[in-house]
Structures are given as C-alpha cells and as structure tokens.
Specification:
The protein has about 375 residues and is α/β, with parallel strands linked by helices. The chain folds into 2 domains: about 5-190, Rossmann fold (3-Layer(aba) Sandwich), CATH 3.40.50; about 205-355, 3-Layer(aba) Sandwich (Rossmann fold). The chain has helices at about 15-25, 50-55, 60-75, 95-100, 125-130, 135-155, 175-180, 205-210, 230-240, 275-280, 295-300, 330-340, 345-355, 360-370; strands spanning about 5-10, 35-40, 90, 110-115, 155-160, 185, 215-220, 245-250, 265, 280-285, 305-310, 325. Strand 1 (about 5-10), helix 1 and strand 2 form a beta-alpha-beta unit. Helix 1 crosses helix 14 (about 360-370), helix 4 packs across helix 6 (about 135-155) and helix 8 (about 205-210) packs across helix 10. It is globular, with a radius of gyration of 21 Å.
C-alpha cells in the first residue's frame, strides 16, 4: 500500500493549508499510511495580518515579483521529502510544489505527485491581492498565473474536499480550466478533531461578558470582513432584520463597512472565538465564493445550527447538516424563514452527522480509501 505524504512549510491551528495539515496531523497519529511533513509547527492561532499595511510598498512588491520570476524556472532540493519512495506526495502550496518538481533530482518515477489548493479563487489571485495597484501588480499576477499553470502541467492530480470547491477557478481562462479538468481528482472531505467545549464558560457567562442579552436569539459571523467571505451579505441581513429579539455579533477584522443596526455588536478579532461560537444559537457563513470552510465543521462538531450560502464547496456538505441561503432569492426573507424553521436537527443529531462525515476518523479513512 502506498504511503500518503503531505508537505507544507508550516502547520498551525486555523484555516488555510497550515490549519488543514495541523488537523490532519492530529487525525493521522495512529495511521500507518498518512503522514504530514513540514519545516515549522505552531500550536496557536495567528492573528491575520492587515492587508492595508502590506500594500503600497513598491520595493517589497518588486522583490516579490523578482522572486516569482525565479520560481518559474528554479528548483530546490527538499531534504524533508528525500527519503520518500513509492508513495503519493501531496503539496499544499503551488510555489512549494513547483520548486520541488523543477528540481530533477527530487522527482522519483515511483511517486505520484498531487496538489491541493485551499482558496475559493485561484491561488494566484489571492497571492496577488496584497500587492499595491499598478504595473507591479499586473506583473505579479502574470508571473503567479505562470507558476500556477506550470505546476498544473507537472502534477499527476488534484485533491479537493469536493469538486465544487474549485467551481470558481479559471472560468475566464478556458485553456487553464481545461488543464485543471484534465487531471485526476480525489474528493476527500476535510475532517477535524471535535471542539472540546467541556471547560468553556457557560453561554450566559460569555454573552454577559460581551453585553448581549442571553434571552435573545444570537446569530454570529466569524471571520474576515471581506467580500469573498460574504460580509456584505451579513451586513444586508443584519440591516434588513428588524426583529428586536435577534442579536447579531461579528468577530473578525477586515476592510468592509460594518452593519448599522441597534441589534448588532462587533467584537473585533478574538482569541476566544471558539468559546463565542459555542455561545451563539446560529453560525452564519454567507460566503460569496467558498472553498470548504473549517468554521462550518467546527460549529457542527459543537452541535451548532449553521446557515450558509449554496456556493462552492458548501454545495456538497452532507445532507441535513446545514441550511442554505440562495443568491437568486431575497436573502433577508430566506434568513427569517430559516430562523423560524422547525426542522432543524437537535444537537445530538448534528454532532452525529459531524462524527460520520467530518471527524478525524472519517478524514483518515477517506484518504486511505481514496489512494
């Protein structure tokens, strides 16, 4: 049986490839086949850096563009993977994969090389988004897209949580889209270790600490205040909901304007976000584009009711785990109907569904059965 070796420079709790592999390493501790390798490991979540502060540094952007250019052709020996033979190697970054595959001494014909991308839009768009506007951004976008296309040509296949996670990739670039669709796909739903709420403060204690009436229905948004994550949809729903017994809260940071409503409280970025999630009644994940959000899985593991948009990787979540908002309808009316629905599963049923589909046990079993 082939070993399945995952590689990334960093693993740590949270989202993205680093968070994915942190969860996978925890899940794979007793597996004889699945292994995670990395250069650095952290055990705490990192506060996201401020995109505005990263922009408008022309010298830094030029250095990154030059580095991107070299990466198209440059290879690098990677001692972390030197001993891997007769295995499946899965990279979790386009640049890392291409650096490895460009170095002829790295590539072993007995191995298969797969790539997993973790963004709701093509990685080159996300990477170029923190570059200042103008010609340098155009150059970086071109170079990063070149890196991506070369990497896709060199890999044997792709790993995705489900096929809809990459719905938004290369829709305006038919050749790249055709290349993407020509690859072998492994659909492997993400899994996480259940959030242990045993020692969390009580609901009333948490809500009292943030000045929220525990008698109200509490709806929470957790994440970056950006368009991809649907913070604009959250704002629309908050400002359109005039029911006094619903309180909306948000925990995160970003550059979009906050909702204006007497029923809304912004908590900013919180290190205790999981405790706050455990205290709300509904977790609202109103993405405009989506890959496969870990916050949905974290909330399900706590037995929370999750409302999300029918988009990207969220389209193919297990039946009866979430309720959907649809873009082709009035989101405010949709939201009110979902809050009033009586068909929500109880906490135990939600947790059972998480254990069946998204637990660390199912995570490893899906990998071992797919390869």
């Amino acid at each position: 049986m082939k070993k399945i070796v995952h590689y990334s420079k960093l693993v740590r709790p949270g989202g993205g490839p680093a968070g994915y592999l942190y969860n996978l390493e925890v899940a794979s501790c007793n597996s004889q086949r699945v292994e995670v390798r990395y250069e650095e490991r952290l055990d705490s979540r990192i506060k996201p850096s401020n995109a505005k502060a990263r922009k408008n540094n022309i010298l830094k952007d030029l250095r990154r563009a030059f580095s991107d250019f070299k990466r198209i052709f440059k290879g690098r020996s990677l001692s972390t993977l030197k001993d891997v033979k007769g295995s499946v190697i899965i990279f979790h970054g386009v640049g890392e994969a291409l650096l490895f595959l460009n170095h002829k001494d790295n590539v072993d014909s007995s191995n298969k090389y797969y790539l997993m991308m973790h963004s709701p839009v093509p990685p080159y768009i996300e990477l170029a988004s923190d570059t200042g506007n103008g010609i340098v951004k155009k150059i970086r976008t071109y170079l990063l897209r070149k890196i991506e296309s070369r990497c896709l040509r060199k890999i044997d296949g792709l790993v995705v949580p489900n096929i809809h996670a990459i719905d938004n990739y290369y829709r305006d670039q038919p050749k790249l889209r055709a290349l993407l669709e020509s690859k072998d796909y492994k659909e492997i739903p993400t899994g996480i270790e259940a959030i242990d709420t045993t020692n969390f403060p009580s609901r009333n204690a948490i809500l009292s600490s943030i000045n929220v009436n525990p008698e109200n229905i509490i709806v929470g948004y957790f994440g970056r205040f950006i368009s991809d994550k649907g913070f604009d949809n959250f704002k629309t729903i908050v400002e359109g909901s005039d029911t006094s017994d619903i309180t909306f809260i948000s925990a995160g940071e970003g550059n979009l304007p906050l909702p204006q409503s007497a029923n809304y409280i912004n908590l900013g970025w919180r290190s205790d976000a999981l405790e706050i999630i455990n205290a709300v009644d509904y977790v609202l994940v109103p993405n405009n584009v989506a890959y496969f959000d870990l916050i949905i899985l974290e909330a399900l593991s706590m037995g929370k009711r999750v409302i999300t948009t029918h988009v990207g990787g969220s389209k193919k979540l297990a039946p009866n785990t979430v309720k959907y908002l649809h873009f082709d309808s009035d989101m405010i009316i949709d939201f009110k109907k979902l809050i009033e629905e009586e068909t929500w599963p109880n906490i135990d049923c939600t947790r059972d569904s998480y254990r069946k589909h998204y637990s660390k046990k199912s995570f490893i079993e899906n990998y071992e059965n797919s390869f």
